[in-house]
Design goal:
38% of the residues lie in helices and 26% in strands. It has eleven helices and 13 strands. The structure holds adenosine monophosphate. The site of adenosine monophosphate (AMP) has 17 residues, from β2 and α8.
């Protein structure tokens, strides 16, 4: 693989999920987990995070099998981050039932000398203060790509705005974009975000696709149309994995292709609970779905 490595921080979690298709307790999840598994299909991934002593062997095995570098994942006394969520019947809305930060409460990222030289970094959904701490450790970062969620917009807006200033590419979903910018009109929200720091903004719109905004363009990219939706958890981070995996191979000359790869990757994630769907994805299957998305755009 000639791809550049990607360093990623985010939650490594045990998720409890309820959808109209069923329910699962304490399965592997977390923004960093979905991201790492997705991006590892395309590029080497270096993970930064923390788990508790209760973190299952199954999680370590998964990272090992995917060749994900976990040398900067700390295991400390305490409980692994846990999140519970319930989806609306049509799976378009979700309610957080609980967020137990556990070991993330006192987490101080530490990054090895070698990993500090990584050029592409992904600041996945986690407290903005931790996203900033990772940024400070990596002066060599040439591309900072970040994501966030409603909780941090509610309680850590100021730090989030500092994250935005350091971000080159910002990923956010439509509801959160409206919440952060105070503007329901997505194009206007994208303009607001472009003025806040990033040079590229991607607004993820669930089954309605994604919008790619730069200073000179605003473009809509549809989703893969034939998915059987089971559990949308992790779709955003899997999208980021495919998207940044593309950039790690091709730089930013083809941002639209990167978004298409993100959309195709996420389309696998939503087909099973937790990681089940994404684990069925291989590079060829993703290429095939990319081609179908491209045809829809023509
Ligand atoms: P997504 O569906 O892409 O938004 O990501 C879902 C993942 O985010 C789940 O696996 C959760 O464990 C994780 N998650 C949920 N809430 C938080 C939070 N407040 N901070 C970090 N990760 C979270």
């Amino acid at each position: 693989m000639n791809a550049k490595p990607i360093l990623a921080v985010g939650s490594i979690a045990l998720d409890t999920i309820e959808t109209s298709q069923g329910q699962r307790d304490e399965i592997l999840g977390g923004s960093a987990t979905f991201f790492a598994v997705a991006a590892s299909l395309f590029a080497p991934v270096r993970l930064v995070g923390v788990v508790g002593t209760d973190y299952p062997e199954e999680g370590w095995r998964l990272f090992r099998e995917r060749g994900i570098d976990v040398s900067d994942v700390q295991q400390v006394a305490g409980s692994t981050f846990r999140w519970g969520g319930r989806y609306s019947r049509d799976l378009s809305g979700r309610e957080t039932l609980f967020t137990h930060l556990g070991v993330f409460e006192d987490f101080r990222p530490s990054i090895s000398e070698q990993n500090r030289r990584t050029e592409i970094i992904y600041l996945g959904n986690i407290q903005p203060s931790l996203q900033l701490a990772v940024c400070e450790h990596i002066p060599a970062a040439r591309r900072v790509i970040s994501d966030t969620m409603n909780l941090w917009i509610d309680i850590n807006r100021e730090e989030l705005e500092v994250v935005l200033k350091k971000t080159h590419i910002f990923l956010i979903n439509d509801e959160e974009a409206a919440q952060l910018t105070g503007n329901d009109d997505l194009e206007a929200a994208a303009r607001w975000l472009l003025e806040a720091g990033p040079s590229t903004v991607i607004i993820k719109r669930g089954h309605r696709g994604a919008s790619l905004a730069t200073d000179s363009a605003y473009k809509h990219i549809p989703v893969y149309p034939h998915t059987r939706l089971v559990d949308p958890t992790g779709a955003g981070d899997s999208f980021a994995g495919g998207f940044i995996g593309h950039i790690a191979n091709h730089d930013e000359s083809h941002l639209e292709e990167a978004v298409i790869r993100g959309a195709a990757t996420a389309s696998f994630t939503v087909e099973g609970f937790g990681l089940e769907g994404l684990l069925q994805a291989a590079a060829e299957g993703i290429e095939h779905r990319m081609e179908i998305i491209r045809r829809l755009m023509d």
